Amino acid sequence: MTHWNPIRRTALRPKPREHKESAPWRRKKIRLNGREMSELRQNAFARSEGECENSIEGERCPARISWQTFHLAHIVSRGRGGSDTLENVLACCQLCHDRDTKNVRKLKPHADWIPNGV
To answer: Domain 27-112: which CATH class?
Structure first.
């Protein structure tokens, strides 16, 4: 759906957005735009090496993930103040992400997880 500008008689074009940082007196959180979010997805998938990064009862989830099937999940959700950073996201399978979304089981990184992917 495009919005219409009746004065110019043209379609409204959205302005490109840069990533936003929180106000200095608040806890730091970073929001990325689409291009930067795509880069974050690539980095998280590369860090995962094709395996779900979630921990189930102390063991790494055995599910294999591919670029088409993986879900990028925030450890601390954006609504609760979590940032769009590599340290706050997990590349996980659909089952783990669904269980986290439905509050059945919270996401928890496996023991060998390296937050910054180095």
So the answer is: alpha beta
